[in-house]
Amino acid sequence: MLLKSPGRAQEENAKSLSDGADAPSAASAPEDKKEPKREYWRTSLLFQGWYGNGLGDRIAGNNGGGPLPPGRNYGLDGVSAFRVRRSEVALDVFPQGRDAPLPGEEGSALLPPGRFDLHTMFDLARAFDGSSHQQVLQDLTVGYQFNRHLRMEVGQQRTGLTEEGSRDDSRLLTVARAVMNEDLPAKVGLVGNARDFGLALRYRYPTVEGLVGIWDDNGATQNRQDNNSQKFIDGALFYTGISHLKAGLWGGMNVLGNTPSERRDRGGATFIWQHGPHYLEGEVAYGRDYAPGAPGPGLNGSISRGAYILYAHTISRRWQFVARYEHWDPAQQNGGPLVVVTETNLQIPRINHKLHEYTAGINYYLPRDSKLQFNLIRDDTEENGAGFFGKKRTLMLINFQTGLNAPTRPEALAGAYDRTGDVLTPDTNALRIGLLLSPSLGFAAGADIAFPKLHLLPGFRTRGAVDFLGEFNAPNFFAAPGTTYAATLDQVLSISGKYYAGFGLGMYFDGQLRPGGKFFVGAQVTRNVGVEFVTHLVGFERASVALQTRVPL
């Protein structure tokens, strides 16, 4: 969704409402006589164009000539492809008007009590992407504001499950959403970013946000007539009373209807921490999908379960680094037949079918609701999961985005962006993220903790370090083989104002605990960004080489 519907836009960033062209200037009116501009309608636009490259494989992980895998396909076929991902046109109408904040002011843009409003959004790209279940009409809701905190909405919109899945399309930190909120079929585990027709009550207070809704389904009947008497009821509750923190619970299930009934159960939790340049987000989800009368022969349905964790570091007002790991199990049955048959009649072997996905990316924020995003993605599908997620592959996605009234970042938490980062020095508390170059390609991450009062060698400064080296071909990103953990005590020597070198000794674990060491050289590129080249000697035998970006913690 391009611009939050009025119920979800009660506390928008004022700077995203206008570029200032229509705002009264300080010269034209004294500060204490400024009157908020009354809005009667607002148009919003969003364009996202994707370029994908499978780096030798097909982007969707298929073998060509057949349908795209339903579980993780990015909507892109072939080895190299362009896609108009979104072309959204939204209109919000406030028949009796509402007061909007002046540009640059903080505060709420609230619809006065007793007022109606209309929100509609069309995605013109849906007419060309071949998705029969996702058509051009995305949102169409009528809202009524009971008071400053409570409102009702009737119509088609997102059902409100997951924070990332309810987030505006323009505000995403990665090119594609986590798999629980994208690509998955509505009847095989899709949790968030699902639209349907229904009625929702929304409550918003300074520290609490809540939703209760009743819908035809959780996305399975979008733009369609409801085909049964069942309804999907859901709720969400988020708490923001702790500075820099947002935590929430959400879930839903089918109600009413005749027995035997179709089942659509969803549940999960959200955690977001944002402080200074750091943004940490994680969500865990559960899903259950059963056809009427299931379980039964050929109709046993599926149980889904998974999670993701995302970290973003804002290097400057323009540059941001993003990394995400996610795990999704589409058929987490604990018993029953050897083959799980989903509600859509897809057969999934009951074991070794999970997806482990790793994403590393850079966001560059352009003026006026625009940005560029580059993501390098590794889809590490287990051997029996290729029919659902596509085979193992490494791919590149690039997104160019531009818009009008389309903010490019997640809504800031209280006090979240209060600095752009410390000045980086060789012994600054820092985070290191990059690539493992040998013995095979993978991820390399680490953290440095400075000990300014500890001097072990003349001219050297001391820091503690923890490192994580994970190969792409490891069966599990958090377990050996193919994964090495290290803790070392480093000695750092400054060579000049920008360059440094050093070494470290400590313990390494790669299936067994062994002593080891490392050598590194580094350089400061900007005020708060550096690069570091590291050679690890595990057990003083096998060498692992990594190239990392270094930013202050």
Task: Briefly characterize the structure.
This protein has 553 residues and is mostly beta strands. It has two helices and 26 strands. The strands form three sheets. A 16-stranded antiparallel barrel has the order 1-2-3-4-5-6-7-8-9-10-11-12-13-16-17-18. Strands 19-20-21-22-23-24-25-26 form an eight-stranded antiparallel beta barrel. It has a two-stranded antiparallel sheet with strand order 14-15.
Could you characterize the architecture of this molecule?
There is one protein chain. This protein folds into 2 domains: 6-95 and 115-404, Porin (Beta Barrel), CATH 2.40.160; 430-552, Porin. The chain has 2 helices and 26 strands. It is globular and about 75 Å long. The strands form 3 sheets. The chain has a 16-stranded antiparallel β-barrel. Strands 19-20-21-22-23-24-25-26 form an 8-stranded antiparallel barrel. By secondary structure, the chain is an all-beta fold. Strand 6 and strand 7 (208-215) form a beta hairpin.
Specify the number of helices. 2
Proportion in helices? under 10%
Note the main sheet. 16 strands, antiparallel, barrel
Q: How many DSSP E strands? A: 26
Order of helices and strands: EEEEEHEEEEEEEEEEEEHEEEEEEEEE
Q: What's the end-to-end separation, in Å?
A: 33 Å
- From the alpha carbons, calculate the radius of gyration and give it in angstroms: 25 Å
Strand order in space, largest sheet:
1-2-3-4-5-6-7-8-9-10-11-12-13-16-17-18
* CATH architecture label name of the largest domain: Beta Barrel
Amount of beta strand = over 45%
